[in-house]
């Protein structure tokens, strides 16, 4: 053991978890002995209308087909089969609205609602394969809409409610959506926020959208387009609760989720049916040790991100979990809201992001200490590396020192957990995601793709296809190949993350190595923010970097050159530009800081040197500047640095 490890505290799994965990250490051996047989067994946890002939078709990499020839219905697997097995009275969701209103929805009720919504979609002419956009707050109808699409084979495309009208419009256009499901708004930070105006704006530019179905959540007035807009209550509530689910091919598209890449245009990640559901269900059951009869499970994330898709909706429901779903923000109406929810519902498993944990740390341990959190037994982390300090705080002040923390590394593209400890098996090393999931082959390689020995740093790759992998980028197979499968050949998936393997073989994720920033666990492309900034008439050139931030992981820092040197470059303009980006992309993309500069550091070949900009943004000594066209640029930039970042 190296000195570094000797100093690290590790945590062995609690004894009673070792004895009762859904999976033990044998799963690693089982998967290593026969990877495909292992996934095949995982697939058998679902109900298939027709069994597959071939587990994996990888004859044309990187285009994978899993469970070839198999047929199933995702909604049936998530809802109906539990009702048929006698669990109709079990609560599927304890939903908690931000203002304090609540709804408990049983599996039987969920089945009725999903059938009604499916019948409504059919009445509106939606067919299998059609794309349906969902732009909603965190309310039960969001889940019902997703399941209704899955039930009839329509492909849903959920857009996070924090995205702008422009972002929604480009996604409607790229996916070719025929229908939008939205609401008048939702509650956030103690007040209703609106969604319908953005939909009106975006749909006005998307001729392919025939109808907009609107759920009433708040009492806000909405603009209405007759013939196009329909109230959910008018079109869904009168439908029959009977709907016969059709079995779809294992490779039938299930959903598209847009995510930021290294270019300005977001990529539509396509997930399909059988492999996706197999891996989200299995990982949800194994990673969280989910016990459907006794656990109360809470993924505290938004359904608008992949974490919500896989672990609020599909994984949780496929395993017949009782979940908590919360609409609002953690500090509304007080900073103990989450802990009040844990206490109220007796939450046993909590899954959230490091950025939230760091925020709670800032608020102090007295807040959670005011509530009874003794029901908790497993904690999870996702979205960015969790620093050991935050890990230990989470372990101690939320988990009472007794709950294992599973730090799950995965991506929109991977669909499900890929690297994570298992709660009844792994001796935990705070800050490390540690071990590839059974049946997953993750490696750390050098620039040439050679696997590195323990105790070294390189790039993370996945060297075998996995069931819940993305199948392509919607409408752009070439970009799919180029982005993920070209750096080391068509058999190796390049994740875009740097990683270190320690002397014991544990994997530590080190963040993105491409131009993707991670702000509060949200992926934002530097290029996307740059193109928004240069879209403003005052800006000639822009360079954006992610600078480390104690709470959000990274913060967005922009350097801009103005069109006219005489333009007032004061605070007002900086505010205008920050708001411009927020309006263009969404509030999550609003730069933390914008610096107006005369020039940007470029290499002789004209590439902006982001590394140097990052050094400046993080107030570091500048590194090597010898490849700069003109190193005096750096002095110019330094002179322009404002004393402190502009805060909201
Ligand atoms: C980062 C979220 C370290 C990583 C599920 C990845 C993580 C990107 C972790 C995907 C983790 C996610 N430790 N980094 N446990 N989980 N990431 O697509 O950089 O929103 O590439 O999926 O988040 O973000 P995405």
From TrEMBL:
Domain called AMP-dependent synthetase/ligase: residue spans: 85-466
Pfam family membership, one: AMP-binding
AMP-binding enzyme C-terminal domain segment(s): 528-607
Binding of ATP, residues: 383-385, 407-412, 497, 512, 523
GO molecular function: ligase activity
Enzyme class: ligase
Domain of life: Bacteria
InterPro entries on file: Ac_CoA_lig, ACAS_N, AMP-bd_C, AMP-bd_C_sf, AMP-dep_synth/lig_dom, ANL_N_sf
UniProt binding sites for Mg(2+): 534, 536, 539
Record PTM text: Acetylated. Deacetylation by the SIR2-homolog deacetylase activates the enzyme.
EC number: 6.2.1.1
Cofactor(s) annotated in UniProt: Mg(2+)
The entry's keywords: Acetylation, ATP-binding, Ligase, Magnesium, Metal-binding, Nucleotide-binding
Binding residue positions for CoA: 188-191, 307, 520
Catalysed reaction equations from the record: acetate + ATP + CoA = acetyl-CoA + AMP + diphosphate
Entry-annotated residues carrying N6-acetyllysine: 607
Residue stretches making up the Acetyl-coenzyme A synthetase N-terminal domain: 26-78
PANTHER family listed in its UniProt record: ACETYL-COENZYME A SYNTHETASE (PTHR24095), ACETYL-COENZYME A SYNTHETASE 1 (PTHR24095:SF14)
Protein family per UniProt: Belongs to the ATP-dependent AMP-binding enzyme family.
Known function: Catalyzes the conversion of acetate into acetyl-CoA (AcCoA), an essential intermediate at the junction of anabolic and catabolic pathways. AcsA undergoes a two-step reaction. In the first half reaction, AcsA combines acetate with ATP to form acetyl-adenylate (AcAMP) intermediate. In the second half reaction, it can then transfer the acetyl group from AcAMP to the sulfhydryl group of CoA, forming the product AcCoA.
Name of the molecule in the record: Acetyl-coenzyme A synthetase
Organism: Blastococcus jejuensis
Name of the coding gene: acs
